[in-house]
Each structure stands twice: as C-alpha cells, then as structure tokens.
Automatic annotation (TrEMBL):
Basic and acidic residues biased stretches: 147-186, 202-215
Name used for this protein in its record: Uncharacterized protein
Segments of this protein annotated with the region Disordered: 147-245
InterPro entries registered for this protein in UniProt: CCD-Prefoldin_beta-like (IPR052825)
Compositional bias ranges of the Low complexity kind: 219-234
Organism: Ursus americanus (American black bear)
Length: 245
C-alpha cells in the first residue's frame, strides 16, 4: 500500500507539472495569437485606407472628366485653332526648307567657282612666269642668234680663201683640178651656207616672236581683270539675294 501511495503521489506531481506547463504554453500561444491578429488587423486597416484613398482619387478624376465633357464645345474651338496653327507651322517649315536648299545650291556653286578661280589663278601665274621668262630671254637669244651668224660670216671667207689657196697649190702641182674634187668642194660650200641660213633667224622673225609674247601677256592680264569683275558681279548677286530674303 505504501508503494502504491508513493507511485500515485509521483504521478500526481507529474500531472500537475504537466498541467502547469500546458497552461504556460497556452498563455504563450494566446499572446502570440493576439499579436498576430493585431498585426493582421493593422495590415487590413492600412489596405482599407489605401483603397479609400484610391477611391477618393478616382472620384476626383471622374469629376475632372465630367467637367471636361461639359466644356467640349470650347475644346472643339481650341482644336480648330491648333489645326490652323499647325498648318501655318508646316507652311513656314516648307518655306524654310526651300530656302535652305537654295542656299546649299548657291554654296555649292560658289565653292565650284572658288575652286575654278584658284585653278585659273594658278594657271595665270604660271603663264605669266613663262611669259616673263621668255621676254627676259629674248635679248640673250638675239645675241646668241647674231653671234653665230657673225662668226660664220667671218669664218666663211677665211675658209674660202684657204680652200682656194689649197686648190691653187694642188692645181699647180697636178697641173689640172679634177672634176670630182670641184664637185665635192661646191657641195661642201652649199651645205655650209644652208646651215648658216637655217640657224640664223631673220630680224622680222624676232620682232614677230616678241609681238606674240606681248599679245600673250596682254591676254593674261585681260583674263585676270575679267576674273576680278566676275567676283564683283557674284558679290553683287549675293547681296541682291540677301536683300530679297
């Protein structure tokens, strides 16, 4: 009996301890449940508040739309005004595009003209330098042309005299001059005369060469002056175009 009483007492203590623990767990669970429910309630309250604000905004938008619908006739007038302004802007844009295209064409023409003028100026300078060089060489050429002529004129009589002396000596020695020798000497004399005539320029040819050089120089100067006048004309045309714009 004593042993049974001891065992019952022991089980009763364990039962009591278990009940106490269960009560503690229940209290803790209830506290956590309460906190969870409070948190859920707050979230639901915030969501309802956000939906209420969204509904309020939607209501404001609906009111604005209603007011716009009420003012539709005035909106139609504004639409007509904007259409007129749009057409006007399109026309001005087309005019500006035409002016830009015209200016681009004029710029291309001016660029082409400027390049051509540079090339013509370079050719003009080269031609003027060549002409000046030829003009400066004319006196030297005249001297060089005259001096071989004078030398040949001096040499020809001397050669003729020496040749005659040799022929006379040979004729004296041989008694007679062979015909073949006479023919050879006459051919040599004619060749020398022909060379002198070919290498010698006449004075009128020198004068003609100088006149041609002068005409070339004058034509170059006239082309330069005409290029300057064309520049002035292009500048005047550009000024007229600017005034018309």
């Amino acid at each position: 009996l004593l042993g049974q009483t001891t065992i019952k007492g022991y089980f009763s203590k364990i039962l009591k301890m278990s009940q106490d623990k269960i009560e503690i767990f229940e209290s803790e669970l209830s506290e956590e449940r309460r906190k969870q429910l409070a948190s859920d309630f707050d979230m639901v309250q915030k969501a309802l508040k956000a939906k209420s604000e969204g509904l309020q905004n939607s209501k404001s938008e609906l009111i604005c739309l209603y007011n716009e619908i009420q003012s539709l006739p005035r909106a139609s007038e504004d639409k007509d005004y904007f259409l007129v302004a749009h057409n006007l802007l399109q026309r001005e844009n087309s005019e500006l595009e035409a002016k830009v295209f015209k200016l681009s064409q004029e710029f291309e023409q001016f660029n082409h003209f400027a390049i051509g003028r540079k090339t013509a100026a370079a050719n003009l300078i080269t031609s003027k330098n060549i002409c000046k060089d030829l003009v400066s060489k004319l006196p030297v050429l005249e001297v060089e042309i005259q001096s071989p002529k004078e030398d040949r004129e001096e040499l020809c009589p001397e050669q003729g005299e020496s040749k005659q002396k040799e022929i006379a000596e040979e004729s004296v020695k041989e008694g007679t001059l062979p015909r073949e020798r006479q023919k050879e000497d006459s051919q040599q004399n004619q060749a020398m005369k022909g060379e002198g005539q070919q290498s010698t320029l006449k004075p009128e040819e020198i004068v003609r060469l100088r006149e041609e050089l002068n005409r070339i120089n004058e034509s170059l100067l006239q082309s330069q002056s005409s290029g300057d006048s064309s520049d002035d004309t292009s500048a005047q045309v550009g000024a007229v175009n600017a005034r018309s714009d």
